[in-house]
Amino acid sequence: MKSPNFYGFHTFAEPGFPVSLNGPFRDNIRLFLQQCAQPQNYNVEGMQVWCTFLVYESRGVVLPLYTVEENVKNSETPFCDYCRCVGWSHHFVSKRKYHFIIPTNDEWNKPLDEGFCHLETHLLHGLIHCNGFGHLICINGIEGGSKYICGREIMDLWDRLCTTLHAQQITVEDLSKKHMTDLRLLYGVAYGSSWFSSWGYRFFLGSFGVKEHNYETAIEILSSLELDHVIKELTLTNGLTNTEQLIQHYRELSQTNVVTVRDLFKFMLSLKSRSTARPSSTAFPTKTSAFSVPIKRCSLGSPTTRCSLRNKSFVKDKPVKFRKFSNLAAHMDSRWPVRRLEHVAEVIVDALKEKKAANSVSNWGMTRQEARDAARLHIGDTGLIDHVLKSMNNVIIGNYIVRRAVNRSTRILEYTIQDLKKGNIPVPIEPLPIVRRTNNVSDDFAYLYVNILLGYDSVKSAVQTILNSKHFVKVWPFRDEDDDSLRFVCRLVKSCSIDLNNEILRVPPREYVVVPLYATISDLKIAIQNAMRDTYCAMEKLIVTDIDEMDGFEDSEVLFGVVESGKEISVRGYGLDLETGLRYEGGSENWTVKCKCGAKDDDGERMLSCDVCETWQHTQCSGIGDDVEAVPRFFVCDSCCSSLAPVQNRSEFGFDLDSYQNSMLMPYSMPELDLGLGLTYCK
């Protein structure tokens, strides 16, 4: 085994360092692992692990960047929930996924454990399919558990890595919060874009039918609000004189005119950045304050599990705080109602009690898989179980405390319980956040955020539109390097030999292929064929027969002079396996989304299926709120109701359609502006 190399954290993956990679991602990742990573002498859940050692220079510490190769044919989760939730359901299943992970500081000298994909504590977790499409799952800066590295530095590293490896597109779902503020709303108002826009991420997909023009219009409405008008309305309606005094205070501090909400929030962000700067005696290089680093979380799970980026504060050198699970569940960003979350937690506690009673030894515990299997005996929704399990740590359920820790002997994450009545455990309950006016910039920010953005009725529609805009994407343009190779963007198109339906044509495979300068047309066909076979499960037997742009040329013709390098070409052939279970990233089931809000695909929000037409729609758009315990046992959508029975104003499911329309339209449309989010129904 070769001795490991060490690379600087802030310079790793800069152009040409430590290696120049000029091919597509599927080839570049192999060269990267060969030349820049050390293979580990262990596997995790059957997956091979490599490690790249990075030196954080100012602290003199070495941290690991793990790369884990997941072969989908051997994986328990071959399909990709992240692809499904961003409109990539009809991408062909890639053969390999690559996880890029920097664990939390305390795990730097330990091997990765089983269940690493589900941990929320990683400083970095990104996933890229071998076709170059991928997802940023989580980053955690200073307040998320990192002792040295802030969020911007981690994002810089991730962006350099994706660029060096020639990723095609990377998505992120931004549900991050900071001091009770949704950062996508705060940064949207202050800067006109997401926090991730600093690295080229742009709006990609909104929930509940939100389109990009809706998002941009909503940002413009909020950012251009005049403060004098806001003060007048809030004073008349709510009597919020503190808001006026607070705005006036920051106007006096500013050296420029503070006229709009955007002016105010940008100025306060700059003040916060200066007020949280570290003293020079303990400073180390950083590009941002703690305030501007979003803390995010995301977990893997079943196709129904929601990927989310959640806030979690990191308290150093303080006693462990326990939270009542009921309080935690009430403030979780979940598509399941609180009562269902609590029921699952109680089932898991019962299983832990049985396991503890059956084991007389003190060193006992249940692995995540054991707890999951025990819960499945009573609950069929595995996504719901996974969602609850990842939140069960230092929580109080009934008379028991549930803890989660790595078993030192097995190195596996385990759950245990302790009886509050018998253990005499001091339980400092973590209080819920309270917004109040203080002389602290962060608290002032939270106060204005709640009272101007969330409490101002005139802009509820625009606020909700931005909050429903969660998915962002960065697209790397095709690069034709200045060397002795020819590069092409290849798309598989419909032919008589390959029966591609319209859904596949909507998102066809798009692969980069590199051939020598004097390669022939025949060489290009073979290269395309090998690339497709190496990338997609459904194309293992693909035979490329034709290239549209080279029709009329013999296969022996040299490419140079026939077609320009960097061109997109259309490929035809046969041998596509349309019967394989590993066909689409969205799964093997056939489903159709057709919701009142205009959604045509899964957007990650809670949905239910009509028992007549079997189309899926949002529970919220169907009049089923978050507080219901379960969806109706039998559900019929409005369209099917209209065709099966005379249409009435009052539905058979117990809610008034007029009231439903008024309550649902309120957050999504304004009289003076059509955001394209109005809901319709038959009457």
TrEMBL record:
The protein's organism comes out as Penstemon davidsonii
Checking Pfam families in the record gives:
PHD (PF00628), Ubiquitin_At1g33420 (PF25565), WHD_plant_repro (PF25874)
**Record-annotated Zinc finger PHD-type domain positions:** 594-641
Protein name in the entry: Zinc finger PHD-type domain-containing protein
Identify the SMART domains for this entry: PHD (SM00249)
Q: Which PANTHER family does this chain map to?
A: PHD FINGER PROTEIN MALE MEIOCYTE DEATH 1, PHD FINGER PROTEIN MALE MEIOCYTE DEATH 1-RELATED
Keywords attached to this entry:
Metal-binding, Transcription, Transcription regulation, Zinc, Zinc-finger
Record has Metal-binding as a keyword: yes
